[in-house]
DNA sequence: AAGACGAAAGTGGTTGA
DNA sequence: TCAACAACTTTCGTCTT
């Protein structure tokens, strides 16, 4: 747990030995006990912790991980110390250097893969996405890495784009906002990566179905099944009359939920719904008007 | 006080030249 | 690369409960 790590010099005594107290989140000088840093929240530490927890959880249940795991722990390195070169006969020097280069490159690929997989794990659990999505993104990412799609682009953005696409395809869409929050990326970057990936993989881009958002939003708002069913019915009718083409699917979903909730008679203010869905009240109102106008049956007649 | 409603101006992203 | 555009947001005032 407590691990010695070398950073800069200690300003107090000049020694270079430090001690990391994980439970308190402090960085302490091993020599004089000076607390150099409190409330350590660096990224590496955070996902490492998350990782361990996650591993425990996973270990207890489910089939062995396949694409989502990388051969951690088993690693070798080709020698690169000064003496190493002279252990090789002169004639074979160039071959040796070439091999070392390959070795290094393979390692770097593996490193980006294992980094990507742990980032993915974190994001998937943050977004509460199912295992199938996790698996599929991991597989796709491996392919993308092999085909060289990732070159010149950040690992995170590719992952984010893939996740967005796969989640949508899996009928468990997440908004661009949520995805970009999970990866600490700008929305614009995620969207760009998403389109890039669709192009590369030849996937047709279909806008998300508003109905896919309904169950999740309802549970986040603690609304009953009844509301959910009603909302889906409303959505269907709206879809028939094609009121909602070109509108953002989340907006449509929230509007129908709001209508459904008021019909059923459950407490749900516009503000609440808007906040949890990450859109504005006004949007709900506008789309609500359009739906009621066309569907009409929004009065207290049903069920 | 709180929520619903809508008008008007502003924002960020897409599209087409 | 730029302007036009549609969807959506922010802000604010009014009305209802």
Global morphology = elongated
Secondary structure tally, helices: 12
Q: Biggest sheet: strands, sense, closure?
A: 4 strands, antiparallel
Unreliable segments (pLDDT under 50, ≥5 consecutive)? 1-6, 41-65, 71-75, 298-303
Would you tell me the overall average pLDDT?
A: 76
By helix and strand content, what is the structural category?
mainly alpha
Strand order within the widest sheet? 1-2-3-4
**Percent of residues in beta strands?**
5-15%
Cα-based radius of gyration, to the nearest Å = 26 Å
Instruction: State the end-to-end distance.
Output: 60 Å
Q: How much helix, percentage-wise, in residues?
A: 55-70%
How would you spell out the order of helices and strands?
EEEEHHHHHHHHHHHH
Number of E strands: 4
What does this structure look like?
It contains twelve helices and four strands. It has helices spanning 43-60, 82-86, 93-126, 131-147, 155-169, 176-183, 187-201, 210-220, 225-240, 249-264, 270-277, 281-295; strands at 3-6, 17-21, 26-29, 35-37. Helix 5 runs antiparallel to helix 6. The chain is elongated and about 85 Å long. The structure holds a DNA duplex (17 and 17 nucleotides).
